[in-house]
Every structure is written in C-alpha cells, then in structure tokens.
Predict the 3D structure of the following.
Amino acid sequence: MPTNDPRAKKALLLKLALVAVAALVAGAFLLRGGHPKEWLDQGLALIRSAGPVTFFVAMALLPGCGVPVLAFSLPAGSLFGEQLGMTNVVLLCLAAVTVNLVLTYWLARSALRPLLSKLVTRLGYKLPEVSSADAGDLILILRVTPGFPFFVQNYLLGLADAPVRPYLVLSCAIVWAYQVAFVLFGDALLHGKGKIALMALGGLVALGALTHLIRKHYAKKQRASATAA
C-alpha cells in the first residue's frame, strides 16, 4: 500500500539500495568465476585462525555497533564446535549476547544517552517513556516485533529507562531461545546435518509462531484499552 510517510519512503529506498549492492557483489563474484563453497571455507578458516577468544569478544561488542548477531551465531558451531564442544559454544554465545545486552543498556542509560536522545529527536521520533507497570509489555513487544534490529531494541529499552531486572529476564528468555536455535541450525547447515537442521528449523518456526501469538495478544490488548478510553 502506498504511503506518504517520508520515513517509510527512506526505509524502502535504503532496503532497495542494500539489495542492489548485494546483487552487484554477487554478480561480480560470479563473473570472476568464484566458487561459493571454497570462499566460505576460506572465510571460516580465516576467522577460526583468530581464535575463540577474539571471536566471542567480538560477538559481545560488535552487535552494539550494528553488526548482526546472526553473523556470529550461525557460524559459531562450525568454527569452534570441534575445538570446544557444541555445548560450550552455545554457552559462550549466550554469554556474549548477555554481555551485549548489559553493555548497550548501560550505554543508552548513561554514556551515550545525550547523543542517542538527539539522534532519536532529529529523526523525528519521540523518546520512549515507560512506567514500571508497563515495562514488561514494552520489552516483550520490542523483542517480538519484526523490523527492529537487536542493537536498536537494546538502545531503545535503555533510553526508555526500562527496569533492569525485567529487561534482563525477559530479554534473555527470548534472545537465548533464538540463539540456541540459530547456533544449532547454522552448524547443522554448514556440516550437512539434515536431521539436526530440520529440528533447529522447527524450533525457529515454533518460536516465530509464539512471538506471533504474543504480538496478537498485545494488539488485542491495545485495541481493548483504546475502546475503553
């Protein structure tokens, strides 16, 4: 449906630009006669050579700068599963995202708050405000709504002064579940483990269905509140 919202148009143009860049890169890759599997193996070997400490420290820090968490969780098992064991890889991934949750929340509430506040205002948005009673609802809505990158969710919740306990408990419950599924799915996919890949994919589908039900519940709750008002 067409929209006159300038922010929506900018977002659409940005997505189209990203798709175009990706297509150009893919085209150049194919024209040069690249072999995806070989390039993938070489890339994984290069990352593996940096060692698990560097990898998981990067996973804890770089998503706060906008690097997708999936860039770490999907290849983590393939990179270090044999060296550390899959259980330890999963635990290290969970530890890394938890550090990032805490770090970005703290930055949004203290060190980067003035800068982020100005940025939000300049983009035409209003700083989120939340009461202690509504904090859980806001956290759940942000975590299960598509379109909000992980780091944006964290910074917005920090700017909204969401209480730290529900922020950590609810965020970890949702983020951890997805991380476990993505780590197992990525490892199974890269190693051709069809059964495990299907099980992990089933877990992701189940989580997606659950988040859809949560969104539906809160949408119904908001309509009921608007009607009552």
